[in-house]
Write a structure and sequence with these properties.
69 residues; 1 helix; DUF397; DUF397 domain-containing protein
Length: 69
Amino acid sequence: MTGKDTPVHPADLAWFKSSYSDTSEPSDCVEVAATPAAVHIRDSKRPDGPRLAVDSVTWTMFVAGTLAE
């Protein structure tokens, strides 16, 4: 197993929101945490709720698609 394949414990993820996000509470946005193997995504209002993880290629395509709008 390489370092890229090593699972990351959820408590070890460094979550952040976009600098464009509203700073008031509760904020309606997503948070992301990047690791070598995946980009993890969660709802900022439900940090203990469900999470989504996608590979870096998928995340890059998603971000590029949002910028094209």
